Amino acid sequence: MRLWNFSAGPAALPAEVLEQVKDELLDWHGAGCGVMEMSHRGKEFMSIAQQAEADLRELMGIPANYKVLFLQGGATQQFAQVPLNLLNGGKADYIVTGSWSKKALKEAQRVCGESSVRCIANTEDKQAVADGFTRLPAPSGFSVNADAAYLHLCTNETIHGVEVLDEAAFLAGVPAGVPVVGDLSSHILSRPMDVSRYAMIYAGAQKNIGPSGLTLAIVREDLLGKAAAGLPEVMDYQVMAKHDSMLNTPPTFAIYVAGLVFQWLKRIGGVAEMGRINAEKARLLYAAIDGSNGFYRNPVDVACRSQMNVPFTLHDAALDADFLAGAKDAGLLALKGHKSVGGMRASIYNAMPLDGVRALVAYMEDFAKRKA
Ligand SMILES: *Cc1c(COP(=O)(O)O)cnc(C)c1O
C-alpha cells in the first residue's frame, strides 16, 4: 500500500506516472523491450529524450538561446562543474543561505582556489537557532561585484526550508552583466519562474523531477566554451551541448521517467496550476504550525518560508519519537528532520497531493490535542 511520503529526496513520484512506467516496463510502445534495455542512440530512445526536452522547454518557457543538458553526478557535481566551466580565470560571488549553498561555496573554493570564490553574504546565525539559517539577506544587504564571473545562489534550501519566493526582487540589485547561476534542485517546476533571469539553472532530478541519477542543467549559450584547460570532456558543458547530452551513455531510464513527469505536469495544467496547488498546500501546513499555540514551531522568516520543504520542531523534543511512530501508523512517511536541524521536516513537492497535506495536518492537530 502506498502511504503519504514526505521524503526530502529521493522523493515521491506521481502514482499515475509510476503506473505508466509499470505498464511500459517490459515492452515500451511495441519496441519488444523496455526503455532500460534499449540503445540510447536508437530512434525509440532519441524520440523519448527529444520529447522530454521539448516538454520541459514548454513547461518552463526556456528561451531558444539556452541549452538543456541531461547530466549525471547530482547537484553536488555541479558545485565543482559550475566554477570549472564558468570561472574562466575570474572571480565568482556566492550567497550562502543554508547547507546547500554553503557546500557549493566550499567546493568551488576547494576546486578553484579560495581567492577566486568570494562569499558576499552569509545568513548563518548560530545565536538565532541551533542550525543557523532562517532567513535571506535583504536585497539591499548584499552587493554583487560588477566584475564577477557569475553569482551563485540556492533558491530553495532543502534542509533549512528557506526559499527565494520573488527572484526578480531578490536579484534586482545584481549588476546587469553578471550571470546568475541558481541551484533550483528542490523547487524547479513548482511554480512559474523566469528562466531568463538566470544565465544557468541546475537541479538534481530526485526532488521534483524524477529518479536520482539525472541532473538537469539549463545553460545560456554565451556561457559555453569557457571551461578550464584540461577539464574532462564529460564535465564540459559545451562538449555535452554539442553532443545533445549523449557524448556517452546518458541516464536513459531517469530521462524517460522525467519525461513522463513533464507530461503529467502538462496534463494538470502546467506550472501555473502546480504553483496554485503548491501555495495552498504550504498555506495549510504553515497555518497548522502557526496556529498550534507553540506546540509546533517553524523558525524561518515568514517572507522566505519554503513552499516545498517545511521543517518544524515540537515544543518538547522528548515527544519526537512518539510523533514519528504515530505518523507512521497514520500512513505518513519520512517526516524525520535532517540530522543537522533535528525535529521534523515535511517535503511537499509537486507529487504530494493536497489530500496528503490534509492528512498530515489532521494528524498534527490530533497529536497536539492528545499531548497538550
Ligand atoms: C539535494 C540537493 C543537492 C544535492 O543533490 P545530489 O543530487 O545529492 O548531489 C544540492 N542542492 C540542493 C538544493 C538539494 O536539494
Sum up the overall morphology in one term: globular
Tally of contiguous helical segments: 10
Secondary structure: number of strands: 14
Order of helices and strands: EHHEHEHEEEEHEEEHHHEEHEEH
Secondary-structure class:
alpha/beta
Unique bound compounds = pyridoxal-5'-phosphate
CATH architecture verdict of the largest domain: 3-Layer(aba) Sandwich
CATH class of the largest domain: Alpha Beta
- Head-to-tail CA distance between termini: 32 Å
Count of the separate structural domains:
2
Helix content: 25-40%
Strand order of the largest sheet: 2-10-9-8-5-3-4
Strand content: 15-25%
Task: Assign the CATH superfamily of the largest domain.
Answer: Type I PLP-dependent aspartate aminotransferase-like (Major domain)
Could you walk me through the main structural features you see in this protein, from its secondary elements to its overall organization?
With 372 residues, the chain is of the alpha/beta class. It has two domains: 4-12 and 269-371, Aspartate Aminotransferase, domain 1 (Alpha-Beta Complex), CATH 3.90.1150.10; 15-267, Type I PLP-dependent aspartate aminotransferase-like (Major domain) (Aspartate Aminotransferase, domain 2), CATH 3.40.640. Helix content is 35%, strand content 15%. It is built from ten helices and 14 strands. The protein has a seven-stranded mixed sheet. Strand 3 (92-96), helix 4 and strand 4 form a beta-alpha-beta unit. Helix 1 crosses helix 7 (252-268). The longest helix is centred in the last third of the chain and has 21 residues, at 270-290. The model has no long low-confidence stretch (mean pLDDT 97). Pyridoxal-5'-phosphate is lined by residues 9, 74-76, 100, 154, 158, 183, 185-186, 204, 207.
